[in-house]
Design brief:
With 294 residues, the protein is α+β, with helices and mostly antiparallel strands. The chain has two domains: 124 residues, Orthogonal Bundle (Arc Repressor Mutant, subunit A), CATH 1.10.10.60; 151 residues, Multidrug-efflux Transporter 1 Regulator Bmrr, Chain A (Alpha-Beta Barrel). 44% of the residues lie in helices and 20% in strands. It has nine helices and ten strands. An eight-stranded antiparallel β-sheet has the order 1-6-9-8-3-4-2-5, with helices on one face. Strand 8 and strand 9 form a beta hairpin. Helix 1 crosses helix 3 and helix 4 runs antiparallel to helix 5. The longest helix is centred in the N-terminal third of the chain and has 22 residues. The radius of gyration is 19 Å and the shape is globular. The mean pLDDT is 91.
C-alpha cells in the first residue's frame, strides 16, 4: 500500500507541475519556488517528474513554449513575432527565433508565411489515427460562449497514439463504474495542437467531469478545473481521425479569417459519443476552441 500511495503522490506532483507550466508559460518559471510549494527539494522534483512524465522539466518547458508559439503564429495575425514570443515566456526575440528554428527547421516568419502547411500535412499523413484527407467543414456554424470552470478528474498521456488513448479511456471507464458515477461528461483536452505536433510528443488529457453530488474524497485520480474563458464552440461528428482534420481546419482556416485570435489555453472536446470507446469508431462532440477579442 505504501508503494502505491507514494506512486499516486508522485503522479499528483508531476501533474500539478505540468498544470503550473501551462498556466504560467508566459513567465520565467522558477523551479525552486515550485519545489518549495510541494515541500520537496528541486532535485527530488526533477527526479519525480522524469520518472512519471518520461522527460525532464526544462525540456517540457522549452517544448511547451515552442508548441504554443507555433500555434499562435498560425492564428494571431495581429500580433507581432516579438509579442508572440513574450506570450510564450521568451524575453528575447533572438533566443526565440534560434530555438524555433532549431525545433521546426524554419524561422517563425517562414512558418507564419505558410511553412506550417507541409509540416502539418506530414504529421497527419503519418498519424495512426487518420490518413490525411481534406474535409469540408465550412458549413459548421460556431457559437461564442464563455465557459465555466468545471472539476475534472483526469489521466494525462504523453503520446497521442490510438492504442495508448484507447487504454486510458478504458481505465477512466473502469474508474467511473468503480465510483458509481451515473451522470458525467467525457472530455478530451489538447494541450498540444495535434495537427502541428508529432503525436509521439503530444500531451493528451482524457477526463471525467462528474455532475451532481459524488463522494470522490478517496480517489487517486488528479483533479483540475477547466479554464473559465472565451471559446468558439462547434458541433462535430465523424469517424476516428476526423477530429484531427477538424482541429487542423479550425486553426489553419477558421481562426485566421474569424476576426479572433487564440490564446495559450488548450482546445478540448466534450463527447456525446466517444470514438475511443464506441464499437463503430464514430464520435459526436462539441469542440471548444479558445479565442480572444481583438
Amino acid at each position: 500500500m505504501q508503494k502505491r500511495d507514494t506512486y499516486n503522490k508522485h503522479v499528483q506532483i508531476a501533474n500539478d507541475t505540468m498544470y503550473y507550466i501551462y498556466e504560467y508559460i508566459d513567465t520565467d518559471i522558477n523551479i525552486d519556488d515550485l519545489a518549495l510549494s510541494f515541500g520537496i527539494s528541486k532535485f527530488h522534483l526533477h527526479k519525480i517528474f522524469k520518472e512519471i512524465m518520461g522527460i525532464n522539466i526544462y525540456e517540457i518547458i522549452k517544448s511547451t513554449r515552442l508548441q504554443k508559439a507555433s500555434n499562435l503564429l498560425l492564428t494571431n495575425k495581429y500580433s507581432t513575432i516579438t509579442q508572440i514570443a513574450s506570450m510564450c515566456g521568451y524575453s528575447s526575440q533572438t533566443s526565440f527565433i534560434r530555438a524555433f528554428k532549431e525545433r521546426f527547421h524554419q524561422t517563425p516568419k517562414e512558418w507564419r508565411n505558410g511553412g506550417y502547411k507541409e509540416y502539418s500535412m506530414n504529421i497527419l499523413k503519418n498519424s495512426t489515427l487518420a490518413l490525411y484527407e481534406k474535409k469540408d467543414f465550412e458549413n459548421i456554424e460556431p457559437k461564442i460562449i464563455k465557459s465555466k470552470a468545471r472539476a475534472t478528474y483526469y489521466i494525462r498521456q504523453r503520446g497521442y497514439l490510438k492504442t495508448q488513448v484507447v487504454k486510458i479511456w478504458q481505465k477512466l471507464q473502469a474508474w467511473v463504474y468503480t465510483n458509481n458515477i451515473n451522470n458525467y461528461e467525457e472530455i478530451g483536452i489538447y494541450h498540444d495542437n495535434p495537427s502541428i505536433t508529432p503525436h509521439s510528443e503530444c500531451f493528451y488529457v482524457a477526463g471525467i467531469i462528474p455532475k451532481g453530488e459524488v463522494d470522490l474524497s478517496n480517489t487517486s485520480l488528479p483533479l483540475f478545473y477547466t479554464p473559465e474563458a472565451l471559446y468558439a464552440t462547434f458541433e462535430i461528428k465523424g469517424e476516428l481521425g476526423d477530429v484531427l482534420r477538424f482541429i487542423q481546419w479550425a486553426y489553419h482556416d477558421w481562426l485566421p479569417n474569424s476576426g479572433f485570435e487564440t490564446t495559450t489555453n488548450p482546445s478540448y472536446v466534450i463527447f456525446k459519443k466517444n470514438h475511443f470507446l464506441s464499437e463503430d469508431g464514430k464520435f459526436e462532440a462539441t469542440y471548444y476552441l479558445p479565442i480572444q477579442y481583438v
